[in-house]
Amino acid sequence: MSSTELRIEKLNSRQLKLLEKCREEWRLNGLGKGQTDRVKAEAAIKAAYRAVGLAEPRVIVWLKSPWAGNSASRILESDIDWPYHLNTAQLEVWDAVWKQCPRQLEAISGEAHWKEVRRSLRLSAEKKVIEREGVLLEKYLKDQFAENMGIYIWHYLRSLAGANVSKKLREEAENQVKSAIEGRLSALAAEQIYHELVQPVHLQVWSYVAEPLKQRIPTMSGILAGPQKWQINYGLHDSSWLSYYDFVDRLGIEGTTPLKGLTDLARNAGWVWAYENLCIMTDRPLEVHRDNRFRIHAEDKMCMRFGDDWGLYAWHGVLVPPYVILLPEPLTFDLIESEPNAEVRRVLIERFGLENYLREGKVVKMHQDNAGILYRMNLESDEPIIVVRVKNSTPEPDGSIKEYFLRVPPTMQRAKQAVAWTFGLTEEEYDPLVET
Known about the structure:
Blueprint: H1 13-30, H2 38-51, E1 59-63, H3 66-76, H4 88-98, H5 102-109, H6 111-133, H7 138-161, H8 166-181, H9 187-216, H10 239-250, H11 260-268, E2 272-274, E3 278-282, E4 287-288, E5 304-305, E6 311-312, E7 314-315, E8 318-319, H12 322-326, H13 333-338, H14 342-352, H15 354-360, E9 364-369, E10 372-377, E11 385-391, E12 403-408, H16 415-422
Organism: Candidatus Obscuribacter phosphatis
InterPro entries: DUF6745
Pfam families: DUF6745 (PF20530)
């Protein structure tokens, strides 16, 4: 560190205000939605390759969701050579990838060679159609040629792609930056940035949005089923760790340039699967809906939807099957009881209404005193539901008294104890005469 480079011991008020602005920008970026700027995103990923000494990817393909990107990556790393092994959604990914590649592969192999490839594939298609149909029909020829071209291009991409370099793009660039900024921040200043900037962005962007995506994406069926590798650059969902270095740059500390490509990528794209010579890029979501605690949530549609109409359904952060959100007919007690997943069943109970669920279920009265009545309902493969039934201390305008069912922890044994818990008090501390 030269004598002109100052060391920051503790963030001052001006720097803390700058941190707040940076935090809000990266939070909004990570929760972003809308159209993707593919031109800027491609420039960003090329810069990220160059930053770690790699040549720019020779082929770039775009898909509309991280599920599609993951499917393409798994097809690429498999030995599938026939598209009919795939299910309908996977076949759409197969087609979407190869149809983007002819011009890019022509640029790599040369015009003359590519013309010869097309001629050979067409002759093969003509032969297959005649063998199958007895006559050369243009419609069948077109379909057979497209099938041959798709198979050829996927074989070519496998031989071209090379190793996955997603991890390299991050680790080597980050190590360069760490070395360049070493000594410019005290441990206290670095801790301030981590707790005031990185942690909040990580919670809202990664924990509440990206992590649910990671849970749902690997649910591959058929030939693509199997262990999941997470060799990915997460684009906009890398906002938390990138925010640290962006803020360091805003403090006037030099040396963060190697991460500029990944930073620009996060501002302009979704998830990316990077290989030595091939890059699979995906768009940002078109819609993201959250509750007031920033958890993904929507009551009547996908909480996160991408351009290919793949997405997530969630209820206050809990991933649920589509039927839980889209079910057209009213929920029933039997439907709830038939749901095998305990977490999903809790969501269904919440939607059905706890009071309705208890009225239709097998409820056991555990205890009764002046505070209310404590009930227990046993559930298969889940903890029991314990509720306390209480009366409102203030009559309604018509003189009636409203009753409420309040869910309490399974450890509650007495009604007064349960009511006290709802006020954050012990049974001994609770006095109904001062209840507000």
